[in-house]
User: What shape does this take?
Amino acid sequence: MSRAKLATLGLDLPLLPTSTVGSFPKPDYLTEARAKATRNAITRSELDRLERQATEFWTRVQEELGVDVLVDGEQYRGDMVAYFAETMEGFSRGGLVRSYGNRYYHKPVIVGEVRWPGPITVEWWRWTQSLTTRPVKGMLTGPYTIMDWSFNDYYPDRKAACLALAREVRKEVEALLEAGVKIVQIDEPALSVRPDELPFAVEAMHAVVDGLPAYYITHACFGAFETIYPGLLDLPVDNLDLAISHSALNLLAMFETNPFTKDLSLGVLDVHSHTVESPEEVKARIMRGVGVLSKERIWVDPDCGLKTRTVEEAREKLTSMMAAVREVRATVR
Ligand SMILES: [Zn+2]
Assistant: This one.
């Protein structure tokens, strides 16, 4: 079904399309430059030049590895929520808090009506797409996650904040589609935190995408998926990108009870481990998915953004993934 949608968008992807979740590690020169920029030791335009250089580097790497659907690598972002909150109106920057694992970030505070300020990610998409003939995904953080990872000092409740954000995120989707984007990934890693809120997270996603023609992917991680499955299938997106490198058997067993109705991006690389998986290990993970769902509906990617790995680890892990996919393509066709 979604293959047909891809075709109507003019996209012809191979069996088991490969992609990545979004972020890549920043080369050392960029990490240093970002630190300097916070001390005003280099100019914004110098930082911008280095962010473009790193974006181009990762675009070339993805092309060389043969990845089918590319990302811009998020070299210009710090945190996936703070980046949008700092760009949109209605937020102020809060104190430093610790979130998942060792992730520290300035938790944004909603202090007024949230407003889209004009295109946020469009220029990065345009620049990346200009470097390659392969499709580049538009990459956004979803309204539920922006709400959940912010303090709310303005809206009456979490649902109101989430729906207000959805109306503004939609404008970014519209701007991306206008620029030519065909595949949009809207990340909602916070989705499984409060299962009772799933209905309004779904309502918010409708507000973001309804009537806008694109192939939509939602990445979710940190998952206690059993608490939000099968309700998760109500999200109006074409593809759910779920981490299975740890919990493959449980997740796939759940599909036997309640059939999975969308395309599935199988997260087959453990991004939290330094160990580079062998192609055989990755192949076994892919085959578990192929055993449960039609191969036409499976995409392959790492189980989260690769930004916490080193540049070399990220490249080696993706090399294994691509080798595994080539082998599987040759055997299951
Ligand atoms: Zn993730």
User: Anything to note?
Assistant: The pocket of zinc ion is lined by residues 21, 189, 219, 221, 304-305 (CB under 6 Å).
